[in-house]
Design a protein that fits this description.
The chain is mainly beta. The protein has strands spanning 75-85, 88-98. The radius of gyration is 25 Å and the shape is extended. The chain starts with 74 loop residues before the first strand and ends with a strand. The model has no long low-confidence stretch (mean pLDDT 72).
Length: 100
């Protein structure tokens, strides 16, 4: 920059339309249209002991998923979704895997 350029000052203004993500307003819209047919015959026995001590300031929602497909005719798929708002924390996940 040349020092002489400092003598020139231009003031501009422009109205911003759009570009607002809505931080802090609590607006959150999701449209999800999923058609899934799943037939599962399953026997499941679970013995689980949970001892939880949580100290959180604010809200937390986590969703973790992973997919691995190896070999012929393999398929693995995951969907994960989280949402937090004042007083609300939600986490959802769906996993599907198949092999032939």
């Amino acid at each position: 920059m040349i020092i002489a350029d400092l003598n020139y000052l231009e003031i501009t203004s422009e109205e911003v339309i759009g570009g607002n993500f809505g931080y802090g307003y609590g607006d959150f819209d999701i449209d999800k249209d999923v058609d899934i047919d799943i037939d599962i015959n399953e026997d499941l026995n679970i013995d689980k002991n949970v001892d939880v001590d949580v100290n959180i300031s604010g809200n937390l929602a986590t969703a973790e998923s992973g997919a691995t497909a190896l070999g012929n005719n393999s398929f693995a798929e995951t969907f994960a979704f989280t949402f937090t708002n004042d007083g609300v924390a939600s986490a959802n996940a769906l996993s599907v895997s198949g092999t032939n």
